[in-house]
Design the sequence.
């Protein structure tokens, strides 16, 4: 998944959430197989997805799923969001290798 997008104004928007949701859908599709191989890793990834969702809540505006413009976030906010994505990406990057080894 990578870092929070920074290449355009308003990057913390529906595209960001859609990317997160797409990553979650991919994980959910392989989660049953991963649980059989490494339930600890599967649980860790689920917890980190939940943490990213929680980290996004303060930036919602209006209807759920609508977010403040990325360019309007403080440097600390940007670092925090980027860190939460990086923390998710680390165990998520292990899934392919775990499944391929089976």
Sequence:
């Amino acid at each position: 998944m990578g870092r929070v997008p920074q290449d355009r104004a308003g990057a913390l928007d529906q595209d960001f959430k859609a990317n997160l949701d797409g990553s979650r859908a991919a994980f959910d599709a392989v989660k049953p197989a991963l649980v059989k191989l490494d339930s600890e890793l599967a649980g860790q990834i689920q917890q980190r997805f939940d943490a990213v969702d929680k980290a996004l809540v303060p930036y919602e505006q209006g209807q759920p799923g609508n977010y403040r413009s990325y360019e309007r976030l403080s440097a600390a906010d940007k670092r925090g969001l980027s860190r939460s994505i990086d923390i998710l990406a680390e165990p998520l990057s292990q899934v392919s290798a775990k499944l391929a080894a089976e």
